Amino acid sequence: MATGNPADSGDLPSPGYAPTGLARRAAQALRFWRSDAPAPAPQPAVVSFAQLTERLKRYLSSGDIARVKEAFKVSDAAHLGQYRKSGEPYITHPIAVAELLADWKLDAAAIQAALLHDVLEDSGLSKQELVERFGPTVAELVDGVSKLDRLRFDSSEQQQAESFRKMLLAMARDVRVILIKLADRLHNVRTLDAMQPDKQRRIAKETLDIYAPIAHRLGLNALYRELQDQAFARLYPLRFHTLRKAVLAARGNRREVLGKMLDAVRKALGQAKLKAEVQGREKTIYGIYRKMEEKRLSFSEVLDIYGFRIIVGSRAECYLALGTLHALYKPVPGRFKDYIAIPKVNGYQSLHTTLIGPYGTPVEFQIRTREMNGVAESGVAAHWLYKEDDTSLSELQSRTHQWLQSLLEIQSQTGDSTELMENIKVDLFPDKVYVFTPKGRIVSLPRGATPVDFAYSIHTDVGNRCVAARINSEVQPLRTELRNGDVVEVVTGPVARPNPSWLAFVRTGRARAEIRHFLRTMKREESVGLGQQLLAQAALQLEFRLADVAPSRWDALVKGAQARDRDELLADIGLGRRLAAVVARQLMLPMGTEATDTVSEKSRAAFVQTAPVVIRGTEGMALSMANCCSPIPGDAIVGHMRRDQGLAVHQSDCQNAQRARKADPERWLDLQWGEETSGTFPVNLEVNAHNERGVLGRVAVAISEADSNILNVHVEDDGSELALIHFKVQVRDRQHLARVLRSLRRIKQVTKVARVRSGGKPADET
């Protein structure tokens, strides 16, 4: 505890400090205060195993403590001669981590794993040796926390992402893995001062991005708050100390108001015959900073720095206390939240209300039971802290289990470690919205989530076949942001599939991973089909059929190309990674003869003049229409094999296509439309019309009556008699386009209609 005037320190008044007059009465009134914003400073660590043992004796059996002692001996020997950057023996770190777990009353296996959590990285001890000495459970816990330092990766970011993937998978199997890791991270950030500034900032950023959100997601709020403040102090030291100084000054300025409210609240609760414990709470420094940044507020505009927490005996008493408070002070409209009836996704339960106190000062109150308070501070760790009351924690455990299982689902759909990390970060945002299914089930989603996120949270098939959504019985776009209390109904279609544009607005990691997985799978299947078609065309030009190629020749070609199988080779052709003409030539060559992508002028001419490839519009993502000329069925077309992007279709007279074909002819091939095509194709139109009231509506109606859909519209209005309207519409072919144009010409205000390319050059004058 600091000495001297407490207003100059980061601590609250100590019992030994006796100011006079009003200041003394206010200090006595606020001696109960529990600040959530301590000044980050190295915490006293347990530096001897004897002290840790005394803590463990409070809840572990003698047999468990004997096993913990054995783990300590192994860890002490493994770290002998090793020192931390601060100069302390390294063994003090695992002991301190074990101490934090002991505060949560974790079992002996977790304490053993905490003591051993660095031995796989820092000593020659193997996982198998841990299994033999301590059993598979402890070994799996240690292995789940350990990093992958011994493996080689392309970058430190990939190594970090792969380590994080491994930790998440282990955590999904056993939540104790992340509890050990979080305790490890907390002790590390408490003792960061000995590190170089750049390393301090790196660890602090990683803590804010990953570990603090995980702590919040698991309901470990006390740990979450300290991780945030410790990391913030290292990442932005000047901002931290400036805000901390302002908080201390504000604390002094508001003592009288808060002291009066405390007395009035205690008196009112007593008159209502409610046995309640009243605590003060203070917003964390990082919480204040984030609110100032997100809402662009000055410090003086952040009014909920201080508040009160009321702890009562039962759920019913929470609502009685709420009524008592609302009778005492006026509540602020729109600032009441009932997290008891609808708990947060991490199991948090409490009533929140903001009241206008003396002198017009708004003050937030939180009302909860003792069990709710335990869960609010310790989250999933409450499973060990409150074992005698498992029934009250069953919902929390179920929510945690569901989230951990969702991690497994996300990683199973995600091939790349860095992509997994991105998806998990998205899923860790603490702000949530709570929406309802038509049957009344509550679904929690990140703030900003859309009906697509909701659909994937129900089931993967619902998300994949989603075509529309009704929000509160009204049809809304799929990118609409959901709000608390919305009733969401998803409309599905039997042949619908995910749209790549969904990735621009979905917020949940599960939705993002499922969409990407589907698109990767579909793109491969479609690329294989297109590759098969291109290779068959090239083979016919060389006067042989693919069906006549011997299996041994195929096997030799696949092996020589270092592909996994024939489908991968065909997919590479469809994606433009290999030229169909070159692969066809390789299939013709005798065994052992090589052919490369470098072709002779004579062979090149033969390859370019292959029979046209037929396009039917059903090729999917392996084929795309070029934006520069927007070809539609009926246009003369050519194709460009773009590496990793498949086949791009251009109009034959497209200037971009003509220039590119001269520069790289072997990647171009002639195309023709099939006799029957399917789907719709975008076309750009320019409409010149008299600038009269309602003309845009008449044009839009004409397009709709011609059975065409408007994708985009833009009006150029310079105040003259004529306006230029740009449309992007969907048509099935040139005949359909002609009907659209005829429909537009019938409008008397329209003076000219033209189909244009994206650069504004006419494609067809009409």
Description of the structure:
It contains 30 helices and 22 strands. It is of the alpha+beta class. The strands form 5 sheets. Strands 1, 2, 3, 4, 5, 6 and 7 form a 7-stranded mixed sheet that branches. A 5-stranded mixed sheet has the order 13-17-15-16-14, covered by helices on one side. Strands 19-20-18-21-22 form a 5-stranded antiparallel sheet. Strand 10 and strand 11 form a beta hairpin. Mean pLDDT is 78; it is low at 1-39, 42-46, 148-153, 385-393 and 591-609.
Chain-wise SSE layout:
Elements lengths: L20 H9 L4 E2 L13 H8 L5 H17 L13 H12 L4 H9 L2 H4 L4 H8 L1 H10 L10 H18 L2 H15 L6 H21 L3 H15 L1 H17 L1 H17 L5 E6 L2 H11 L10 E7 L2 H14 L1 E2 L5 E2 L12 E6 L5 E8 H9 L3 H4 L4 H23 L4 H11 L4 E5 L5 E5 L4 H8 L1 H5 L1 E6 L2 E3 L11 E5 L16 H33 L9 H10 L5 H9 L5 H9 L12 H8 L4 E3 L7 E3 L11 E6 L3 E6 L3 H9 L4 E6 L7 E10 L4 H11 L3 E8 L5 E10 L2 H12 L4 E7 L5 E4 L1
Parallel strand pairs: 1-2, 3-7, 13-17, 14-16
Antiparallel strand pairs: 2-3, 4-6, 5-6, 6-7, 8-9, 10-11, 10-12, 15-16, 15-17, 18-20, 18-21, 19-20, 21-22
Helix pairs in contact: 1-14, 2-4, 3-5, 4-5, 4-10, 5-8, 7-8, 8-9, 8-10, 9-19, 9-20, 10-12, 11-12, 12-13, 13-15, 14-16, 19-23, 20-23, 23-25, 23-26, 29-30
